[in-house]
Amino acid sequence: MSESIIQKISLFFFYAFLDERQAIVASKKAIDVLNKKVSLSEGTGNAPDLEPSLIIHIIFKIWKSMKDSNSLSFTNFNLEAGWIVPEDINLGLWRQFLKDASEPELHAAILSQILFFSDADISKGLGVTVGTVRMRTSYALRKLGALRL
Amino acid sequence: MCQELLYDYVTDSLDNDRKEDVKNFLDNNEDCHLEKENIEFALKYLNQLSKTEISKPVEAQLTSKELSVHELVNYLNWYRWNDMLRWGVQALAVSSIVAFIAVQIPWLNKKVFQFTDANTVVLAKLSRPVGEIVKQGSETNKPVSSMEKIKLAPEKVAKNIPDVQKAIVKSKSKEKIETKKVKQASPTVNNTKTETVLSTTATTNSISIEKNKNKVAGTGRLYRVYMVLPDLETAEPKITKKIRALNGNKAGRVELGLRKKEGLYYHFIMPSNNETLLYNYLKEFGAVKVYEKEHSRVMAEGQKRFILWIQDLNKE
Questions:
Q1: Which of B244, B286, B293, B284 is nearest to B263 (CA)?
Q2: B56: closest CA of chain A, how far (Å)
Q3: All domains in chain A, ordered by first residue
Q4: CA distance A29 to A4
């Protein structure tokens, strides 16, 4: 699996949970599932094909299974930060956005504007129309922008 | 309507006509203009978030095939369990740990814990082991403690008797002298009998000792003496006099020689060394039966209690 895909998967879960431990667990789960898909495709003789919509679908599925879990209470022995955020970024704004935005808006904002998936792939992966994806993105951006005030 | 198109306007997704209309509307509407600025800000913000990188350790962890502790816990789906089940498992785990610790601790080890019984009071600490015999007049010249006396085995009491015997003889020395005097005054008493007093003393003591050998110290004894005589009126004053002569005194309220319907009743205390003398004297009147019984009333050392019943032969 390419490094870019691993990065995208890990970024999605990091900003979806804003919890490094949970993000690691979820990312690893998603990568394992995708690896299995790849190995199955190789077994059947087909070229390994990881479509963005498939990645989005797997990501969404794992997020759904872990969204209700409490933050893991084990001590994080890794003293270094797992994700290196740009220095001038205020994550407090994002934390507030996590509380205010709905789940569809959150997914749309992350997938569209952080991970730069196309609206078509997002719509295919989430099982909604393109218009719905754009509408959710629009609402998410307006909410996020309103928080700056 | 304008607000719905703002996102498309900002991302340049609108056609030229709509784009122109939205632009004109924005110039005249402050709220929409503010909304547009919010969208632009949000896009900028998210663009910066997209520059987030993952560290090498995390990348290696994601690509490794080993399961971390977090993943193991996550695979259990602990957080999806029922609250009751989750609390029950936690309570079971805690109670198991506590029970294991409690079993492992050596509670009975005196070095670890010093337990004292609140109901136990230490009166004295003895250096001698339990059951050791202490003789009177020993080196220490100290009286035997009550605790030691209690602990002495019954069969070892006999070993102390010679000393006790001496003590009795010594304590009754005055009574012996008086007995001698009484013997001399009485015409029926021979010199040989005074000698027999002493010898009887020894034999009496030996007899009583043998009887008491297996008895537990502290138990009283009552000696019941039975006789059957035809002529009580003649016998009574003689017997009463003899008992008094042998230093016998009434043991209760009843006077010596109480005349009852069917016989004579004597309840008296007498020095034990005169017991045989009494029996020998009574034998002169008739057959004598003596029964020794345990009684709760304990007499002083050297004293015995007697109940003498003389049945009237004519009223049997």
A1: B286
A2: 8
A3: 3-146 (1.20.140)
A4: 17
pLDDT tens-place string over residues A93-144: 899 999 999 999 999 999 999 999 999 999 999 999 999 999 999 999 999 9
Q: Is the pLDDT of residue B13 over 70?
A: yes
Task: Give the torsion sign (CA, A114, A119, A124, A126).
Answer: positive
Q: How many CB atoms lie within 10 A of CB A23?
A: 25
Q: What is the ipTM of this complex?
A: 0.88
What is the spatial distance between Cα B282 and Cα B181, in angstroms, rounded to a whole number?
21
DSSP secondary structure, B161-183, as one string? HHHHHHHHHHHTHHHHHHHHHHH
Contacts of B54 in chain A (CB under 8 A): 6-7, 10-11, 14, 82-84
Residues 6+ apart with CB under 8 A from B19: B9, B12
CB-based contacts of A32: which residues, under 8 Å, 6+ apart?
Answer: none
Instruction: Give me A77's structure tokens.
Output: 């022995």
User: Taking CA atoms, what residue in A is nearest to B58?
Assistant: A82
Element housing B309 (H / E): strand B303-312
Q: Please, what is the Cα angle at B189 between B204 and B178, to 5 degrees?
A: 65
CA distance A45 to chain B (A): 24
Q: Measured between CB atoms, does A69 come within 8 Å of chain B?
A: yes
DSSP sequence for A90-111 = -HHHHHHHHHHS-HHHHHHHII
Measuring CA to CA, which residue among B132, B142, B237, B246 is closest to residue B186? Answer: B246
Kindly state whether B79 is in contact with chain A, defined as any CB-CB distance less than 8 angstroms: yes
Strand ranges for chain A from DSSP E: 83-84
Rounded CA-CA distance B269/B299 in Å is 9
10 Å Cβ neighbour count for A84? 13
**Domain boundaries, given as residue ranges, for chain B:** 2-49, 176-315
Lowest mean pLDDT among A15-19, B209-213, B259-263, B281-285: B209-213
Please tell me whether residue B229 adopts helix, strand or coil conformation: strand
Could you tell me the pLDDT band of residue A83, with boundaries at 50, 70 and 90?
confident
Residues B142-161, mean pLDDT to the nearest whole number: 46
